[in-house]
Amino acid sequence: MEQKENDTAAMAARYQRFDPAAYLQYNYTPPRADFDREDSIVPWKLARLHRAFAEGDIGGELLVDVGSGPTLYQVLSGCEVFDEVVLTDFLESNREELRRWLRDEKGCSMDWTPYLQHVCKLEGRRASAWTEKAAKLRRAISDILPIDVHRPQPLDPRRFPPAKADCLVSCFCLESVSPDLTAFTRALGHIGTLLRPGGHLLLIGALGESFYMGGPGLKIPVVPLGEAEVCASLKETGYTLIRLEVYTLPQDMRVGVDDVTGVFFAKAKKD
Ligand SMILES: C[S@@+](CC[C@H](N)C(=O)[O-])C[C@H]1O[C@@H](n2cnc3c(N)ncnc32)[C@H](O)[C@@H]1O
């Protein structure tokens, strides 16, 4: 128990040096976000999220994104289905980055316009509809909350009652904040308490990754996951898997900011 707390405390200490602007630069610019390439990693993720929300089985009022970081791509499809979206992150610096975008302030580290345009095209709309999508997302985001997935109640229950969410999205969070597979599975169980029974989880994450760079000189350890581990953890924490899809990184997407070999996308339903 004490070791577990030491490990997660060491992880939390490391995250204090996380650099949102550098992280965005490493992962959310070309070649990883090249909208002219079918095999680029970001378009792959956006297509999976678009399909998952377009299938018609996901619904309700409230979508919660767990461990949003400084990014918004993961809620661009969901905001068309849910009237309310709650973003969450452990770090104030990431929450502040999201607030800057929400208030349409100057000084954002990232221009999400190409992302909004791309998702509009996936939805069969003209790219120029991106301004409407941005406005819709800004209206939908009702809160940006602190979260710690290592706590049995990851969100403050006074601000977010248990089982309130109709759907959870979480991308590259649990494996990159957990010291080992046991902690990853435990964290998956913790975030499940936010979701109502019958609600959906869309989980995206890294395969075979042992570290990523959270900023210059900041190497963050990651639990190296395989498909079998992801499936077993979902089962153990009370989810029925609907679909697991895997993307293998082409050689030129291996740009030295991590040692990821692939990405998984899981669509699951809470029992
Ligand atoms: C690899 S980033 C993923 C960010 C974003 N979701 C994405 O898709 O790029 C991991 C995120 O987990 C957050 N984090 C760190 N410790 C956490 C914890 N104990 N609970 C929840 N999130 C945490 C970090 O602040 C960071 O934003």
Q: What would a concise description of this structure say?
A:
The chain has 271 residues and is an alpha/beta fold. It contains eight helices and nine strands.
Order of helices and strands: HHHEEHHHEEHEEEHEE
For the record, the count of structural domains works out to 1
Q: Name the shape in a single word.
A: globular
CATH class: Alpha Beta
Distance from first to last alpha carbon: 28 Å
What layout of secondary structure does this protein have?
Layout lengths: L1 H14 L4 H8 L13 H14 L7 E5 L17 E6 L2 H11 L10 H10 L7 H11 E6 L18 E7 L9 H12 L2 E13 L3 E5 L2 E4 L5 H10 L2 E10 L13 E9 L1
Helix pairs in contact: 5-6, 7-8
Bound molecules: S-adenosylmethionine.
The site of S-adenosylmethionine (SAM) has 20 residues, from loops.
Structure commentary:
Strands 3-2-1-4-5-9-8 form a seven-stranded mixed beta sheet, sandwiched between helices. The chain has a two-stranded antiparallel sheet with strand order 6-7. The chain has helices spanning about 1-15, 20-25, 40-55, 90-100, 115-120, 130-140, 180-190, 225-235, and strands spanning about 60-65, 85-90, 140-145, 165-170, 195-205, 210-215, 220, 240-250, 260-270. Strand 4, helix 7 (about 180-190) and strand 5 (about 195-205) form a beta-alpha-beta unit. It has a single domain, classed as Rossmann fold, CATH 3.40.50.150. The relative contact order is 0.16. With about 270 residues, it is of the alpha/beta class. The chain is built from eight helices and nine strands. Helix 7 (about 180-190) crosses helix 8 (about 225-235). The protein is globular and about 55 Å long. It binds S-adenosylmethionine. S-adenosylmethionine binds near residues 69, 71, 91, 147 and 176.
